[in-house]
Amino acid sequence: GLTKADRELIIVATSSHNKCLYCVVSHSALHRVYSKKPTLSDQVIVNYQIADLTPRERAMLDFAMAVCRCDTITDEHFLSLEEVGFDREDAWDIAAIAAFFAMSNRLAHLTDMKPNLEFFNMGRVPRDKSKSKTEM
């Protein structure tokens, strides 16, 4: 199945392709938090094809981007996923996330949605553990 970090990485890649600032910034923040890889989402934003991805992540994003671009999905797409351990249910989940965020990206554009400033540093800068949650 997909991890939380996987889901966020799909959103980052497809939202970058769709030029959605809100989703790129907010979901890259969540990816940094879930993955504990503070630079990977930035690499994916610029060009996922040259990012430091595992073979599993690369196959996942190749499939997500094919859905995002409305490419014709072929048996080769599914075979590429299966080669790295994904099944048809995982393929459905990857495609559903890409498709849902295609709509979400467009609605964010329509409403001129801007990311909260906190998202820009989230997962990059260690939290000050001396502050209580009520101070944040």
From TrEMBL:
Residues 1-64 form the Carboxymuconolactone decarboxylase-like domain. It comes from the Eukaryota. It holds the Pfam family CMD. GO terms for molecular function: peroxiredoxin activity. Coiled coil: none annotated. This is Uncharacterized protein LOC568697. The lineage of its organism: Eukaryota, Metazoa, Chordata, Craniata, Vertebrata.
